[in-house]
Amino acid sequence: MARQSLQLELVERPTAGIVPGKTFRTRQVPAPTEADLKDGQLLLETLYVSYDPAMRGWLDDRRSYVPPVQIGEVMRALTIARVLASKSAKAGPGDIVTAPLGIREVGIMPEDQVEPASALPLGGKTGGKVTDLLGVFGLTGMTAYFGMTKIGEPKAGETVVVSAAAGATGSVAAQIAKIAGARVIGTAGSDEKCRWLTEELGLDVALNYKDPDFRQKFKAATPNFIDVFFDNGEENTLFSRESLEAITNKTGLQSVVSN
């Protein structure tokens, strides 16, 4: 019997939260095979799927950095996959790769959207494991690394503020700033997350932005103003651009919009 592939498809655009049984449907379809491959393509089997906050925005029919998922399409997602068959020199059968395969069991991807795991630092001195390909060595980790080191460029002794600091991108960005010798202040949405930021990640200060006294506490935590603000999407709710410019030391707002 031919193999089937289970996939998750968008049925209805949500106006608020995801509605179980209405927003998505699951469907079994015939799995593609090696015979379906064209030159430069790979047949992949999903091992892990990354569920990210950005996925909610991909459901909205509005202009963004990527087109929205269309009705009837497989839900977009980044994955770790095993190569079942290949007509590409980039990876061969049995290799582990990352690719935006979506939420499906088996699919075909072009080689320019596939990244072999062998190209990334797993094991050895890094201690990295395969699931890190969707984390610190994946899109969120790379966003944090390039955003903080190439745009924010914190220096020892400077004050860095990271919003949504307990998230996948913010937590890495905050640690990079600490490694650079900066004083790092993170914001998060609960006291539990704030404790994790200071006790586990070593941030100097963590503030709950839902605290009624947040603005006063933020002012007290930044007596010498701030040098870098790494924005993970909370800027509009936490600060106005004018207030950020007023408390930023460097010429112009050093802000990285990452999510």
Distance between the termini: 44 Å
**Count of individual helical segments:** 7
Helix coverage percent = 10-25%
CATH superfamily of the largest domain: NAD(P)-binding Rossmann-like Domain
- Please give the order of strands in the largest beta sheet: 6-3-4-5-7
H/E topology pattern:
EEEHEEEEHEHEHEHEHHE
* CATH architectural label of the largest domain: 3-Layer(aba) Sandwich
What is the count of distinct domains?
Answer: 2
Poorly predicted residue ranges: 251-259
Query: CATH topology of the largest domain, which one?
Result: Rossmann fold
Would you report the number of β strands? 12
* Shape, principal axes of CA atoms: globular
Strand content: 25-35%
Mean pLDDT: 89
Describe the overall structure.
There is one protein chain. The chain has 259 residues and is of the alpha/beta class. The protein folds into two domains: 4-118, Quinone Oxidoreductase, Chain A, domain 1 (Alpha-Beta Complex), CATH 3.90.180; 139-257, Rossmann fold (3-Layer(aba) Sandwich). Helices cover 22% and strands 25% of the residues. It is built from seven helices and twelve strands. It has helices spanning 54-57, 139-152, 168-179, 191-199, 214-221, 235-238, 241-246; strands at 4-10, 24-30, 41-50, 78-86, 96-99, 106-110, 115-116, 159-162, 183-188, 205-208, 228-231, 255-257. It has a five-stranded antiparallel β-sheet, with no helix packed on it. Helix 2 (139-152) packs across helix 3 (168-179). The longest helix is centred in the middle third of the chain and has 14 residues, at 139-152. The chain is globular. It starts with a strand and ends with a strand.
